[in-house]
Design a protein that fits this description.
Number of strands of chain A: 13
Structural class of chain B: mainly alpha
Radius of gyration of chain B: 14 Å
Helix content of chain B: 40-55%
Number of helices of chain A: 24
Distance between the termini of chain A: 47 Å
Strand order of the largest sheet of chain B: 1-3-2
Distance between the termini of chain B: 35 Å
Largest sheet of chain A: 4 strands, mixed
Strand content of chain B: 5-15%
Strand content of chain A: 5-15%
Oligomer: heterodimer
Chain lengths: 526, 132
């Protein structure tokens, strides 16, 4: 499938979804005040309430921000809707901080810009499917999505969810909705496409890039909210000095003379030197959340169960949450609620059982731990000249881990391996209940895209954040010492699956698992 | 006739090949992500090398093209002990002998002879852009 064919297919499916979920705006009589548990009270204008009241946004009340992590951290039940309000709040705080700082520079911070940025904040997550990134992990491998964000297309390398958001906001139903909105809100001096471009972070006009940076940049309002919010509701203590960050945020014109990698002038959001510590706190908080929350083995197991239920339904052509899953957009028609409700109402008894396990927290368990410490280094006699002891084996393992998941072919290989494990263990459960789970390693790309002004406001000089924060090395240490992949299966099958997984994966990766492969999962050594 | 490749190569094999073909006696290059990603993206857009690098996807929205896959490959090579980031300032990557050995023993045969020649040419351009 070509990128254009993939895009056409997505556009058609999005058109149907938008037709059903947008409709006409319903205006309240006055502005509204909403109270948020994390950031407190904020004011929403009438047209913003009309957008929030659309089915497109209301469905986000029923999509959990952190997928199924509430099955492990009971209080982390907040929704994408709450996060949306939080992003609006953070956008406004950044805006206010910049407005105070650049009170005399109306040319790049005109009052008319504020409604556009606020609306982009409200709409930035309108395309999230069920269980947030869990459904994205499934549909990013669908052919139309792979083609659309693959090599050579306009959306190459972009996040599938952002592309779906762009397509929603540029769809005819949203255009019609926006026209109605404009009639009662004359402050909207822009087009829906302008918001869509901000959310997609296309950065077409380099002299308006700071606007994109607020919505989709290295330290955007999205990150400022989700890190604080996920920390707050999980109960994990994270200290972030946002006051200092807002204060230290600057808009700076950067030229190729100042930053040799640039090819033209850019007007960007940068952080003053005094804000580096706050950014470092954000980076540390994200690492902490990754280790303790997003990569928690119970959270990962629950996410595999969602994938398993979807895989079971798709293989057999069954409806799930009232839909046959055929395109990425089908996940936008569902909510977490409708998905889990199928535990009681789906016509297929096995699918009811799989979903019931999620609903009643009968989670998959670890049958094997794949980690830097969980396999033996090969004998020296096995080594080829020039290859250091242990390195080849570890390379083969990490090679698989890092890259297999990237493509549908690689994911297929992993699923075939899981099926092989299930089969060689004499099928004690469904293949859809055996998962080789390999969380992503922490990414460091953001640091090279975040600029720090090490000069003054008037005579700026720039470095990137990667010069200040050794995240690259942190990431390696995380991968070596903390990262864990797992083989998951139903609790009653662990005894059968565990030794087979050990053998099958050992053979594929050309390694011998040691006692830690079991003991890290609290299993007796084999 | 230029020989027949025994197996399809992956984008990761190409990245390892780029590094393994570094001039004998030279083992380090600048660990600057902006230069590295820019260099590989430039090679990909060059028609001489586009076929070799077609599997690499670049996000081109920001001021330099960025490939998660390339980043992950460099991470994997470091975790495998095939590539070091020299301390304390981390300015350079240093390839270990195991990287060349791995290419020679495991990866090289996935390429046809003409592909290997092109890879060597791409490698030389890569290091010229990135700096050693």
């Amino acid at each position: 499938m070509t990128p254009e064919e993939g895009l056409d297919r997505l556009r058609t499916a999005i058109g149907q979804f938008a037709d059903s979920h947008i409709g006409q705006p319903r205006f309240p009589r006055s502005n509204k005040v909403i109270h948020d548990a994390v950031w407190g009270t904020h004011l929403l204008h009438r047209h913003e309430v009309a957008v929030l009241d659309s089915p497109l946004l209301q469905r986000l009340r029923y999509v959990h921000q952190t997928s199924l992590s509430y099955l492990t951290y009971p209080s982390i039940t907040h929704s994408r809707f709450e996060h949306t309000l939080g992003v609006l709040y953070q956008t406004e705080r950044l805006w206010r901080a910049l407005s105070e700082k650049y009170i005399s520079k109306e040319d790049f911070l005109p009052a008319s810009l504020n409604p556009k940025i606020r609306l982009a904040a409200i709409l930035h997550d309108c395309s999230h499917g069920i269980f947030s990134h869990t459904s994205e992990e499934i549909y990013r491998l669908f052919p139309e999505v792979e083609a659309c964000v693959g090599s050579g297309g306009r959306f190459e390398g972009m996040s599938p969810s952002e592309v779906l958001g762009y397509l929603i906001l540029t769809s005819p139903p949203f255009e019609r909705f926006f026209k109605e909105l404009e009639k009662q809100a004359p402050v909207l001096e822009f087009r829906p496409r302008d918001i869509a471009t901000l959310i997609l972070a296309e950065r077409l006009d380099k002299l308006q890039e700071y606007q994109t940076d607020i919505i989709n940049g290295p330290f955007d309002a999205d990150k400022l909210d989700y890190i604080s919010r996920d920390g707050h509701y999980s109960g994990l203590p994270l200290g972030i000095d946002l006051d200092r960050l807002w204060y230290a945020t600057e808009v700076q014109l950067m030229s190729p003379a100042q930053v040799q990698e640039l090819e033209e002038d850019h007007l960007r959001l940068v952080i003053g030197r005094s804000g580096v510590n706050s950014l470092e706190q954000i980076v540390a908080a994200r690492m902490n959340l990754t280790a303790s929350l997003y990569h928690h083995h119970k959270v990962r197991a629950a996410e595999c169960m969602v994938k398993g239920a979807v895989e079971y339904a798709m293989k057999r052509g069954l409806d799930i949450a009232g839909r046959r899953v055929e395109t990425a957009v089908d996940f936008l028609w569902m909510t977490d609620v409708s998905f889990l409700a199928d535990a009681e109402r789906n016509s297929d008894s096995e699918l009811r059982r799989l979903l019931g396990n999620l609903l009643h927290r009968r989670l998959l368990k670890r049958a094997l731990v794949i980690a830097g410490v969980s396999f033996e280094k090969p004998d020296e006699t096995d080594q080829k000249p020039g290859i250091e002891q242990g390195h080849s084996a570890r390379y083969n393992l990490i090679n698989y881990l890092a890259l297999l998941k990237r493509t549908s072919e690689g994911t297929k290989t992993l699923r075939e391996l899981a099926e092989k494990i299930c089969k060689e263990a004499n099928r004690p459960c469904l293949p859809e209940e055996v998962w080789i789970d390999l969380p992503d390693l922490p990414k460091t790309g953001d640091l090279s895209r975040t600029f720090v002004n090490i000069g003054t406001s008037d005579k700026p000089e720039f470095k990137t954040l990667s010069d200040f924060i050794p995240l690259d090395q942190w990431g390696k240490q995380y991968a070596i010492n903390k990262w864990r992949g797992h083989v998951f299966c139903p609790p009653e099958c662990v005894e059968k699956i565990s030794p087979v997984a050990r053998n099958v994966l050992g053979e594929v990766f050309k390694i011998t698992f040691n006692k830690y492969a079991q003991s890290l999962a609290n299993l007796p050594p084999q | 006739m230029t020989g027949v490749s025994t197996r399809a190569f992956s984008p990761q094999d190409v990245i390892i090949g780029l590094l393994a073909f570094q001039k004998e006696g030279e083992e380090r290059f600048r660990a600057d992500p902006v230069r590295i990603h820019k260099a590989v993206a430039k090679l990909k857009s060059d028609e001489r090398f586009s076929e070799l690098l077609k599997g690499l996807v670049f996000d081109r929205r920001d001021y330099f093209p960025y490939s998660e896959y390339l980043e992950e490959t460099l991470d994997a090579l470091q975790l495998g002990g095939n590539l070091d980031r020299t301390n304390p300032r981390g300015v350079y990557y240093q390839t270990r002998p195991s990287l060349r050995a791995m290419f020679k023993d495991e990866i090289r045969q996935r390429f046809r002879q003409d592909e290997l020649e092109r890879l060597k040419e791409a490698s030389s351009e890569f290091f010229a852009i990135v700096g050693t």
